[in-house]
């Protein structure tokens, strides 16, 4: 961390700050130019709260040399992390596919889709039981009943299940019943919820917030990891931009950038990103080529009558055909699918 | 709601959609151009989930004529809402000021600040007890102890207290102890939390999310109101933009826009918006002139040593001087301060 | 176009608007709901200026059924456009690669790079002669001398040349000397410049503005095409977002979206998008897989000493290796490279 | 400027960079931590092109201590600049109002509006002759004829005229005929145009680009000033955000921020910002209170039939009434209006 002091700050004030920083265990390197005066802090600055320094009226600004995340940082953990879920690995050489409907609607629906995607080669089943909806008047998911149906589908197909947790009071149920706990984009900075899943040992699928930077995504992962749970899988699902033809803009450069700065596995959700079924195939293929560890894809047997997000769901036949194309690309890219 | 069908959709498919919409209680007005075919829905469309129509592969797009919010909508409630908090009114002719430190730090601190702001004319005391912080390694607030200190300050000064609720499991405590429950920007779409405060009869101060549109803010208010609690106060606190000199960009045009579309009172937080203490005065004055119902301002007796956000806090003397200037402007603008 | 009238507009005002629209050659379909009143315009609305209708105080808002672009619209030109440049095709089955340095620096530099990229399989040479720079104190390009060096490189290698035009007063020179005229991101809405290149018959490479929507990009193409020049190639080069690790965010979903709405060829610039050399390879591969018609890549023989943008340039050897990988992917994707 | 070297960079490479920087006239302060190695440059770094350092593969990142603009920087010019236009001052204690129609439409129109706004107290007349329009099919302004009508209006009313220059080839005409040359938002980074007006001695009204940061706006001013013309007036006119109710989001915090970093006068355009006539009054008042040096307001005698942007224009009577309110606020704020 580097402190830029204001011009003409009196010596006494500079000494005060220096003593304060030294008392926090930092060594100080001073550097003076014609129009500026810098204090470089050497040592472990991760415990220093920047806003406490910025509050000093003689400080012009702060500049950060190191990333604010530690456990999620590749610098301190150079090897790729691989998350093992009931014997299935996420990360490393593997390219995994999570598929299923936006929301669980009925026993017949979820069993039929689960069977179809398993046959096409998906390795995890997704399905919403508790749904975050923009309008209070929209379908909010089948709730507990939806979770029971997911468990039934797991029993029949052997596919581990992924579903979203929205409130800390369901955590016991999720630990018991779910294989991967999903934290949705709108809750990426719901810090109490992050701490809650951080206290479990369940794999967590953490989606990037709609306007979150990659640093903020990694800080959200840090919240979970700092509580003791290091089994975090990141998910890029599109960010908000000015573009109107698509619901969000998929940020595929986030994949190599995250891989450079962090050791955590990262997958891509092409369905939510564009919000349009005909974008799923090209974006899924691009996600594989750009280096993602997997995909999360919405598949529905009857999109036109889906209770939510049918416009971004593809049918099982189309999903099967997409898996075929992904396998051909995976071979070129040396990924195991 | 208007459904734009794709070119060349066969008659049979159009009839299917028409029958479906009619079964939902809508009358249909059809309109055909050379290159398009529209179905206008007349009647109460608020219960129709748009994604269920967009999912139809023959639908090109949907266009919305009416706003998706009802209880927050001025159309159905032309008079300004006034929220009464322990005898103090927010909305209408009043211009109120909420002031206090970012976080409660000690008995001495909160009592001293509370006393100062009351004397300067503030009508509510703010102070964070449970703090949402970007880093898990930053100060997270004094928690329950902070809330006790706020109660003590209320007892000594008579000022009603405002503090942020982060998790549903504290709701009983907040109903008991707090005068206005604040929902922070990061939780604006934490729908389970919104429903929870919607089930109480406590006034709720709802902050706009960092990248939220005004429609999304009003839909978040709708979540609270649809559960039965109509005592919602909105708060503009800056939105994320590309600008780097300020932490966020205060959207002052949001005030007249919200007042046009909704009957709810709306206040402005100039401290969080800019993130810089020297911006508080000009932005506070502009907020009054643009038509806000009040302000929320961070005041600290020792900003340089504040445990959080000291760089955006002003000292009690400066606050006093600001209140003086606000009173002069209030007179020109016919507001009671 | 659909006009949403305000509630309670008197009949006389509605009739006025109807007569005005009819006088412009539109037929009108009226539709009344409980809380709204719509006028749907049937006929050619492309000549109606929306702001002239919105200005009417009885109009609540306008909704658009059709896209505002015509010549760039796939609706009226279903076949893919292929732009032929000196016998080389851009669009259709081809996947082309434009490569070269950010700016032309010397004869030795441009000849050496041109030779290298030609051997690796690039089909066009890029190089900046007139450079748009954020600071007036930065290197502004070799100007006319740079253009002469590009011509020399073309003579030696046979590669057609692409370079940026910044001002209308160079247009004669560019018509004479350049094979593809580039319009940079900052000039995407420099309408006088667009009209100028629209009056030539030169192929134009039009880059998307940093914060432009796809519709705005297509409207910029429309400016060129409406003057008579239909040889437009679009280029996605990253848009401004809140992300800080990358200079811009490459919007790869723009490729399938543009291909759906327009018949024009579209290529991708992975060098400017991320601004980081190690992002070029993964993004270039993803661009091919997502369906782009080609790439524009910065290659420099000595990036560490490049006069601009060295941090996003790759060396000829790395470029050669990338071309190898692209060829393997092109085979899977049925593209000719 | 501070260079952050990558971990484990060998001594030889560090020495190479140090020698290169020293050869550019900088002194170097070195600072090593456990996980980083910094080189602080002391001296005049304004001539060093950052991209030339970032290109070095051993450099992790650059951090900037000083602003990149010099002539526009308050640091080197502590006094407020006042631009004198035909005896009328912009900046300092004055609060000026520029008013007039979006585009000049006829002699009758411009004369009538000019007369009205002069009587209400405006000090400059605006009016578009050459119009930048998103669609090539929209009205492009009366061009040269429009300019002649503006001159006529100046002759009749004595009001100096402001109009937009879109292309360098009109510069002679503008020097001759116009009192303040406006550079529009879309041309804020049209560097050739900036240099062109920089070579004149005409006052330039420079509008902030739709997605430009304040630093970019000041760098655009720097382009003009570095050519010798220091008579620059800045104009905040709204930035692009995700908000849909307003065309752009007026950034009023930009005013005190610009005043802190620069000595140039800055005015506000509330008409373009919101794009809605009923927003003009509250935003104009807020602009005065927040500290702007003036306003630019669209006034039209018949908005419903205006040839462009009628929805954001106010009528002369409303303008007159607004001026009254502004005068009352100006008195409180100690501004001369």
TrEMBL record, chains A, B, C, D:
Signal found in the keyword field: no
Q: Boundaries of each DAHP synthase ferredoxin-like domain copy?
A: 1-67
Record-linked InterPro entries: Aldolase_TIM, Class-I_DAHP_synthase, DAHP1/KDSA, DAHP_snth_FXD, DAHP_syn_2
List UniProt keywords, sorted A-Z: Transferase
Query: Where does the secretion signal sit in this chain?
Result: none
Record flagged with keyword Transferase:
yes
Gene Ontology MF terms: aldehyde-lyase activity; transferase activity
Ranges where the DAHP synthetase I/KDSA domain occurs:
91-329
GO biological process per UniProt: aromatic amino acid family biosynthetic process
Protein name, per record: 3-deoxy-D-arabinoheptulosonate-7-phosphate synthase
């Amino acid at each position: 961390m580097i402190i830029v002091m204001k011009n003409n700050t009196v010596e006494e004030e500079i000494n005060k700050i220096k003593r304060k920083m030294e008392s926090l265990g930092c060594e100080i390197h001073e550097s003076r130019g014609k129009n500026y005066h810098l204090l470089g802090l050497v040592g472990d600055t991760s415990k220093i709260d920047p806003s406490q320094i910025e509050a000093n009226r003689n400080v012009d600004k702060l500049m950060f040399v190191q990333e604010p995340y530690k456990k999620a940082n590749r610098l301190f953990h150079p090897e790729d992390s691989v998350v093992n879920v009931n014997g299935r690995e996420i990360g490393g050489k593997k390219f995994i596919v999570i598929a299923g409907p936006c929301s669980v609607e009925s026993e017949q629906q979820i069993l039929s889709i689960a069977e179809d995607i398993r046959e096409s080669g998906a390795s995890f089943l997704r399905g919403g039981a508790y749904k975050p909806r923009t309008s209070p008047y929209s379908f909010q998911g089948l709730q507990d009943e939806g979770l029971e149906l997911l468990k039934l589908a797991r029993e029949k197909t052997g596919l581990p299940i992924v579903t979203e947790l929205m409130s800390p009071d369901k955590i016991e149920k999720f630990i018991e019943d779910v294989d991967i706990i999903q934290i949705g984009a709108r809750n990426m900075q719901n810090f109490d919820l992050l701490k809650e899943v951080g206290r479990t040992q369940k794999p967590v699928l953490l989606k990037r917030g709609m306007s979150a930077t990659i640093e903020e995504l990694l800080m959200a992962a840090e919240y979970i990891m700092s509580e003791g749970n290091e089994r975090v899988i990141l998910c890029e699902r599109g960010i908000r931009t000015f573009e109107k033809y698509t619901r969000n803009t998929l940020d595929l450069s986030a994949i190599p950038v995250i891989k450079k700065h962090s050791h955590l596995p990262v997958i891509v959700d092409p369905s939510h990103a564009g919000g349009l079924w005909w974008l799923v195939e090209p974006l899924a293929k691009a996600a594989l080529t750009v280096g993602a560890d997997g995909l999360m894809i919405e598949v529905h047997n009857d999109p036109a009558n889906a209770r939510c997000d049918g416009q971004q769901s593809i049918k099982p036949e189309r999903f099967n055909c997409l898996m075929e194309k992904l396998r051909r690309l995976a071979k070129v890219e040396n990924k195991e699918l």
